Sequence to fold (430 residues):
Amino acid sequence: MNLCPSNITAIVGAQWGDEGKGKITDFFAGDSDYVVRFHGGNNAGHTIIVNGITFKLHLIPSGIVYGTPMSIIGNGVVVDPKALLDEIVYVKEKGVDPKLMVSDRAHVIMPYHIALDGALSRHQGHLAAGSTNRGIAPVYADKMFRNGIRMIDLLETDVFQEKLEKGYGFAKGLIENSLGQVLEMSQKDILTTYLDYGKQLAEYICDTSVELYNAHKSGKSILFEGAQGISLDVDHGVYPFTTSSNTAAGHISTGTGVSFRDIDRIIGVVKAYLSRVGESPLPSEIHGGDAESLREKGVEYGTTTGRPRRVGWLDLVQVRQAVRVNGLTEIALTKLDVLDGFKELPVCVAYDVGGERITEMPASLTYYRKAKPIYETLTGWGNLPEQIWDRGFDALPQNLKDYITFIENEVGCPVKIVSVGPQRHETIIR
Fold:
């Protein structure tokens, strides 16, 4: 069966990240010639389980596990060279020889970006987004300041030295004069260390935009892998409790150089309940026994940070926005097995804000802070039959099919992929 008939397919998160994009990407990657990351950095985390072996990836696209597709880190991604080198070693130790290309235009996370990240988080106080302290926001800021360093610069000593002098001086002034912190790593040490990283990564660095353009022209299958989710998008998310990049499918064009109009299929990954790492209001958040059950059964701990995730019931106001902004053609509904045993399943269909019914995500932080969930309660399905993935969609319990139909009707998008377990084969195509 051809699982990925479209020439270009995109997979994006429809919530707060951690929806199961890694598994869905891995599921489709076997029929793809290229798997591509287009934004974010090693603040993202994707977990894939194949034949009982767990892979935890942060930079390299999830398709690397197959070994056959070419994995591409696009220009919209920000790259920590040491983290990338460590991840290459990690997959090799697990028996995977990575086929990898890294955009020569991708920006480099420098040590002073990481130092700035921690200092800025403290400065932001209660409006802090719960940063991973990986330097993501500062490197994107430097990019816009035209103060950044790109992967190609690591291969050109004179240019790198010139850009480093400017970037280091700017960051040192901010860290020490404005934020009252100390930048401990010297410019000389950074120069030596990062030129060495460049030598180690030289074989992977190239013009990935041209590579993808030619691949598309020749009829190759390309799979775009998003990181995080729509509510973390710096434009469309719950600002300022967002990441520092655009997570929506529209960023594929700017993050890779591939035209958005060439994308045939956009799959939004929706977890059957809600989880969130970091701060921000969370209208459908729950506490107590149900929360602990979801957290433990769903292993809701951050792949990158290890922090326990906040959990809640499915929020369709959020998913509704994901369908609209991303132009989703279909939904992949994941972690349905985690809801086994619940007699009732509340689903948030709207917010009550001071007596007003809100069905779309508000830009107003005041509104979002005041939002109370309006629930529709559906009947649970007990426990899924063993090896249900082998029996197809029709064999699912009727209450589960009703749950899926309810979601489809509320958000106006079909559920075509159903995940009933963490491993690749525990997936049903409708």
About this structure: The radius of gyration is 22 Å. The CA atoms of residues 119 and 125 lie 11 Å apart. The mean pLDDT is 91. The longest strand covers residues 344-353.
